[in-house]
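[job 0412] stage=fold_complex status=start
inputs:
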Amino acid sequence: MRQTKILMAKRTIHRKAQIHRKAQGFRWEGVDELPYKEDDRALFKAITRQVLFSDPDMHAELRYFEMQPGGFSTLERHEHMHAVLILRGRGHCLVGSEVKPIETRDLVTVPPLTWHQFRATEGEPLGFLCMVNATRDKPQTPSAEDLAKLYADAKIAAFLRSEPDSK
Amino acid sequence: MRQTKILMAKRTIHRKAQIHRKAQGFRWEGVDELPYKEDDRALFKAITRQVLFSDPDMHAELRYFEMQPGGFSTLERHEHMHAVLILRGRGHCLVGSEVKPIETRDLVTVPPLTWHQFRATEGEPLGFLCMVNATRDKPQTPSAEDLAKLYADAKIAAFLRSEPDSK
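[job 0412] stage=fold_complex status=done
writing structure:
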């Protein structure tokens, strides 16, 4: 019982501190800016992550990812879905076999087990919100065989070479 | 088995159609703009809702609410939480006993069972994203006694009269 009270008090304090968090541009009060992943294979470039909402009572999390001009997110797939809203800038995304130009406020749905990647244009940063289930599987990165299959599609190959408009 | 195949095909078709949805200002392709609620008591003013992401495989939904200048959302509370990111404009919010000025990109967390309301300034629309659990309880609106308690706080009373800066 005492334990419960302490936990509730902690939860209340924790929440009270963060009812309103001000934005300064695309950084948020009390939110750490993190490198995208601690993964030495570096299948991504110039991208950071901020976790905007994550709470034991919420069944999903809202994160903000930002890529510097020319940067890109990891090429990956997973069972869980991504619900993405572009918050800043423009670029291209690959979802399955589709390569699409993306602009501020566009919505992108990444279905289960679908290869996907986001790439910023050269001219400006690309930032997006990404909603995911709080409980989710780990991302898979492509094997050599998976990559060969992706590169076999000329449109996808151009995207992966950061030349999505060359075709 | 056949049933499963049909369901999977339907799911695929449904998803394929909405991998990328373009924004036109603060309206989205394939997303209906809905009145906030079908409730005759009209405890809100000049607000619409667009459901940006809702999927059986996602444990939360992402909605966009927009209030015209001077409009406001329902004063309510519920067990489920709200995770809010201001996408457009400015205004004030009430969360529990706190009244805060809010601006584009600010974050607002509404804890469980906490009275809350969002109000647009007179000058411009206020739009915000709101993440909620897909499975959630119905909102409660204040009783006369609840309202009396809220109005007993001068800061909250000023907010409810759309005069949050008058004190």
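[job 0412] summary: The interface with chain B takes residues 15, 18-23, 25-26, 28, 52-53, 55, 57-60, 62, 80-81, 83, 85-86, 93, 95-96, 98, 100, 102-112, 129, 131, 133-135 of chain A (CB under 8 Å).
[job 0412] exit 0
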